[in-house]
Amino acid sequence: MENHQISKSSGEENELEESSVTMLDVLEEEKELEEEYAAVLGASDEKFCNYSLGAIKRQALYSCLTCCPDGRNDLNRCAGVCLACSYQCHENHELIELYTKRNFRCDCPTERMTGNRCRLNAGLKQPANPNENNTYNQNFQGLYCTCHRPYPDPERTTEEVMLQCVICEDWFHLHHLDSTSHATKLMEQCSEMICGTCMDKHPFLQSYNGLSLSLMEKSGDTSDGDILAVSGDVCANSKDNDNKLRNDLDKSISDIMNIGEAASSEPNTDEPQQKRQKLEEITGEQSPSKKPVDVCRRAILKNNYEKGPTFWPADWRNNLCRCMDCMDMYKSEKMEYLLDNDDTAKSYEERGMRRAATESSSYEQGIQALASINRVQQIDAITEYNHMKDRLKEYLHTFVVNKKVVTEEDINRFFSEIRSERNANVGQPYFCR
Fold this sequence. Notes:
This protein has 433 residues and is α+β, with helices and mostly antiparallel strands. The protein is 40% helix and 10% strand. It has helices at residues 2-19, 23-41, 83-88, 174-177, 182-189, 196-201, 239-257, 271-283, 324-332, 345-357, 362-371, 375-402, 408-426, and strands at residues 56-64, 80-82, 95-104, 162-164, 171-173, 192-194, 213-217, 226-230, 310-312. The strands form four sheets. It has a three-stranded antiparallel β-sheet. Strands 4-5 form a two-stranded antiparallel ribbon. β7 (213-217) and β8 (226-230) form a beta hairpin.
């Protein structure tokens, strides 16, 4: 009996340890949330509407279905608002977080917003004309992927992993991009993804498929299974493959530019230098003072594209051809953004992180506050936090069951009840006589 009690006591103690939360856990979780916030929202302005600035290269956006109810069935009736307007003008509205979109101008003060007036553009005559250059996809309706389902999907019981296409900026379930395990491994290594529809819509991208990522088996070593490498003639981290690329390009340039092997038996000592100059001109390594030759790089790349999505390394855009014909093509297809390094989501997130780094985080403030209180006060704080956490989970569960949207008023009501309970527990003061 005594052993049984000891075992039971140990089990309860272990269970308590697993369910307990330390102040450091709270601060670490807060730090992760702040980093995520900084990455997605840090580079966008949360206080000022950017409508007056025109189209923004990349910004955090929201679709308001409260102001645009017809947008659920008609993309032409959808509208997107900037971060600041989502806070100030559409509070308690049904908003869909769109992550980031490129070249978009806030719709808040325009005719697309039925019955809404932008508070941050009070001096502007409203409603303003619609932003004709804005583009809208099914994400503005709260739908994603080829399955046209919402995110998170209420009918899905497993984790949803999604990737955004760098061209159409729609989001796709990983298992709908590729039903095999290959897509998972590619996702872990790729920097950007282009969906199969966009690859077919813009055939010039197929010429660069040799720069994309593909799965290969380790030669002579299968202990780690499949690994990622760059298909075709380019390998991002391999000097040997890089030299092979240069040799192949050198040979192709010789054929195209008619500077191949000399017909005479006498060696041409200037030929390597000539070939190297042509290679530099085409690979984009020439000095700014040199004028690029009008030879299209796509003509010397191997096109081994097979239908479907493609996954790309971080520097793939640097290898896009910049000849006169291609530059005109980017302009006609409105894809000049591919040549802009600041267009990438990664660049946007890095700007947000740098901006957040200049400010004191809640994590740093919490660590300082934690160091300033004694052990008893720390335990009291954790006890109160765990109590509040459990109550909040119970409170929010009722909204999940009833499929209701949680509003700011609901959250304020919750904390008001918590304060009332705390005051009730204090009780009446006791006076000694």
